[in-house]
Structures are given as C-alpha cells and as structure tokens.
Amino acid sequence: MRIGIDARALGTASGRRGVGVYIRGLLSGLAPQMGPDDELLVFGSVGDAILDLPGARRVTLTRPRRGITLWDQVAWPLLLSRRGVTIFHSPFYAIPRLRPPGCRAVQTVHDLTPLKLPGVVSRHNARIFRMNFRLARAADRLIVPSEATLKDVVTLLSFPAGRIAVIPQAADITEADIAAADAALPETLSRFGLKRRYLLHTGGHDIVKNLPGLLAAFDALTREGRDLDLVIAGEHGPATAALIARAAMLGALPRVRLPGFVPRPDLIALYRGAAVVVYPSWAEGFGLPVVEAMACGAPVVTSRAGSLPEVGGDACLYADPADPDSIAKEVGRLLDGETLAADLSRRGHERARRFSWRETARRTLDLYREMAA
C-alpha cells in the first residue's frame, strides 16, 4: 500500500487542539507498524517535527489561505494520481469526490456537534462543517472515535453503519511524563499563581464546553465556604470575553485563571496537581481531556452526554450539564471524600491504559489493508 495522510491541520490552530493530538498520535503509532511493502506519505506544511518521523515521507503542501474546500476538490485528484496513493486518509478536512482509479478514501469524523447543537460555531464555520460533512458521504469508509459518534453519523449523515469503523483515540502521557511533571509541580503551580486547591478544565472556551455551567457550579462551591481556584486552560477565542464577563458578574474572577494555551509539560503538571478535573460538556465525539486526566490520575467529573460515559466508564463521576447544582454536588463529593477521590484516581489510571495510540494505529492500519484488498 501507498498510504497518504492529510496532515495540513497541524499548521493551523486545530493543530494545537484535539485534531492535532489525533494526527500526531496516529502517525507516531502507524510508522513503526508499516509492512515492508508499504509506504507512508504525509502531506503537510513545513515546521512540524512529526512530519519527519522515521518510516514516513513528507510531501510539503502549501495550504491556501482561502477556499480550502474548493482547493481540495480540484487539486487532490491530481496529487493522489501523481504520487500513486492507494489509500488516502483525511483526519479532518473533506475528502475529494473524484479520486484516481485504485485510490480508496477514508475520513475521520470526530463529532457532528455543529449539526447537533446549532450555534456552537460561527455561521461561516457552520457552513464549512456542513459542506465537509456532506462530502464525507463520498468516502469509502469512515472512522469515528466512539459508538456515540457512530450513531450520530448514521442518523444525521445517513451513512451505512457497516462502512464505519469505531477506533478510539488515546492520550500520549507516559509514566516518564508523569514523573517529570511531579518533579516540576511546585514550580509550575507557583508560575501559574496557584496557592490553594484548584479545579481544572481543559479543552478550550467553545460554547459546547458549557463553561457558564462550570462557573455557576464553581460559584456554588465557593459560596459553601470552599477555598478553591478554577483553572480554565485552552486557547482564547470568540467566547473568552463573555466568559470573563460572567466570572466578573459572579464575583469569581479573582479566583479564575485563564492561562490560554498551556504547553504539554505544564498541562500534565496541572492535571497532576488538580483536586478535580471538571469537564461538563454538552456533547463530545470522544473527550480527549477525560482520558488525559485519567492517565494523570486526576479524579474527573464529566457529563452524561455524547461519548463521555462511554470513555469514562466507572472511573468518573457524572453530572447533568444543564444543572450547575448537579455539577457542584459531584465535585463536592470528591472534594470531601478523600477515599472516593483516591479510588477514582486509581480506576481512572487503569482505564486510561486501555487507550493507546499504538492500538489506534494498529486498528487503522487493519482498516487500510481491508480497503486495499
């Protein structure tokens, strides 16, 4: 097989979020498992080290500033033909409708949140997502990260379930990472201005993350007399100003930290130091922060929404995302229950081991081989 993977998203803001984690994890797991007659071509931009990993060949593409969806449909057929690609995988952008003879296409659909929850993205981005989701129906196969997303794809895209592969994602956090984070923890907490117990949320400020509900729950907890800070990590965006205004209205702003994008070593340290990781999303296609938190041994409160119960299993506590009191109650159980928190930490660490990029890559490679047969 000659496998081509579209890694252009690594050169965008998405490269610092879940999509980037997925692409890097998939590539790092694929390269060592390729057969002697297989070739891995990575189409991407200059500057990301993962594009130069052993066992892969970089193909540099210049991503257009505008009209990327149209560019994909016009340029990819010729590129795939010239390179002799037999399996083309798009982990984020739309696949081309037209493909050279002998070239099969697979697309990863991470979630259908813009279709399920209107208003969670801008009108412009909603149009792009809808177009990409329609184009996904032209794929030979789709990959989704959870059974919940599979059901959404079947229902909302009318895509046959028999052509969808459920392949979970993973956290790339090792025991060595944890040891390094623990050693750096005092300095990290000092740098972030954290002197008391804190709750942690990661994953950005998007509407779907339900941060107003998180702030309301935090306000309820502090009104009960709990001495807490709240750290909301993730890149600032259009929703950040409203988030700050809401925290100020509640009188919580002095205790709320909004550090923006947090580099991976610091993020692992923040997970390790957190009293509770709180992730009350309205919907998730997978929920990488939950797996990351569990891998770091942090107790988690998350939502009974989307894939989150599927990912967290019995290693998390669950709350109603529409009810801040429900979120506060479950967080309070962990703050007050040292034994419960320790038990969830242990169970979460064990559960996170079920998710590995090597296994994600193995199952993806099996799908490529099935498609090429």
Question: Could you explain how this protein is built, in words?
Answer:
This protein folds into two domains: 2-170 and 356-372, Rossmann fold (3-Layer(aba) Sandwich), CATH 3.40.50; 175-352, 3-Layer(aba) Sandwich (Rossmann fold). The chain is 44% helix and 15% strand. The protein has 14 helices and 13 strands. The strands form two sheets. The chain has a seven-stranded parallel sheet with strand order 3-2-1-4-5-6-7. The protein has a six-stranded parallel sheet with strand order 10-9-8-11-12-13, with helices on both faces. It is globular and about 65 Å long. The N and C termini lie close together (10 Å). The model has no long low-confidence stretch (mean pLDDT 92).
Discrete helix count: 14
Strand content: 15-25%
Shape descriptor reads: globular
- The low-pLDDT segments are none
Considering the protein shown, what is the CATH homologous superfamily of the largest domain? Glycogen Phosphorylase B
What is the helical fraction, as a range of percent?
40-55%
Strand-pairing-aware structural class:
alpha/beta
**SSE succession:** EHEEHEEHHEHEHEHEHEHEHEHEHHH
What's the CATH class label of the largest domain?
Alpha Beta
- CATH fold-type name of the largest domain: Rossmann fold
Roughly how many Å apart are the termini? 10 Å
* CATH architecture tag of the largest domain: 3-Layer(aba) Sandwich
Total domain modules? 2
**What is Rg?**
21 Å
Largest sheet features? 7 strands, parallel
